[in-house]
Amino acid sequence: MTGEWVLLSYRLPREPSAPRVALWRRLKRLGVAQVLDGLVALPADARTREQLDWAADDVIERGGTANVWLARPASVTQERELATTMAADRAAEYVGLEAEAREALSRPPAEQRKVLTRLRRTVREVSRRDFFPPDERDRARAALRLLEERVAAGVGPVPAEPGPGGAR
User: Mean pLDDT, 10 residues at a time, over the chain (168 residues)?
Assistant: First the structure.
């Protein structure tokens, strides 16, 4: 049995382009799965339904057309494909967060604190759109915990590891 999804179908005039760009950025922040041009999907719950309703209202206010639908994929395979696409998008974000947290370990303590503050906020944002958590989430959180521990301990930078073939 497949779960229920909320879909937004929309069309916006090509010009001016600013409303199209604003909508696309908004949809990316929500973590939508792009089904087709002008058709996006999210797992259905009260929050996602409300978010796509608001997006539809914005499209209509800007001279476009929009409809919100509730639907179920016809097969588990179709649903799995949507979930896999969404998980891969989040995985890429988590990989970037992990790399930033690990790189921050080589910075001075004041910079580590700044990076930690920003990464905490970013992790919360990614988590809100993480409907199908990938393994990369745990690695990113572990790297963030390591950075938090270093900041809490007031320890200075960790020397960077030499690259392949580098001197030790």
Answer: 92 92 96 95 96 97 96 94 95 97 93 95 95 96 95 75 50
The C-alpha angle with vertex 101 and arms to 85 and 168, in degrees rounded to 5, equals 120
Question: And the tokens for 136?
Answer: 């990369």
> What's the order of all strands across the beta sheet hosting 5-11?
33-36, 39-43, 5-11, 65-71
Strand partners of residue 10 = 66
Instruction: Give me 27's structure tokens.
Output: 């949809």
Mention every residue, 6+ apart, whose C-beta is less than 8 A from residue 11: 38, 59, 64, 65, 66
Return d(Cα 32, Cα 136) in angstroms, integer.
19
Q: 3-class DSSP state for residue 2?
A: coil
